[in-house]
Amino acid sequence: MLRRVSTLCFFVALFGLLSASRVKADDLFTYTLGSNTFTWDLPGSPTLTSADVTPGNSFFISGVQYWENGALQGTGTFDFYNGNPSVGGGFDLMVGSSGPLNEYGVQLYSGSEGTPTFLLGTFTLNHLSPDGPAGTLTIASITAVPEPSGLLLIGTGALGLIGFARKKIFA
Prior knowledge:
Elements: H1 2-18, E1 26-33, E2 36-43, E3 53-54, E4 58-68, E5 71-81, E6 89-95, E7 98-105, E8 109-110, E9 117-118, E10 121-127, E11 134-141, H2 148-170
Antiparallel strand pairs: 1-2, 1-11, 2-4, 3-4, 4-5, 5-6, 6-7, 7-10, 8-9, 10-11
Helix pairs in contact: 1-2
């Protein structure tokens, strides 16, 4: 009986270590234009539906919270464009029917519009037109953090193993 319980504790701890006990890593976007700084975060490889994608041109992600100069502004829709010479790369932020950001420049993702992965680094983009004022976009990965449920699984299994090992040693 003791062997079965200790084996069960071992597998609970092992499952906790090997399971998806980490929050999916996001990318942090920081765009500085003049004295204004906009920030938001998105999944590094967003999951999109066919309605979110214009193949060969762009994709969009709606319902994204964004901050301007450290103050939450609400939610908006971000459109990301490929580097097609006739369209240009870059992104825009739409809130309702208008947007505070419409930035031209390089393509900010690899892969197709249906399965994009954001590129990490610092990029120069121009506001409102290819010749507009230059801003700087930095895309950095946010470190994944263990979820509490995964840590609880690992801790429970480890405590069970320690308890049985202690009982066996002092018995």
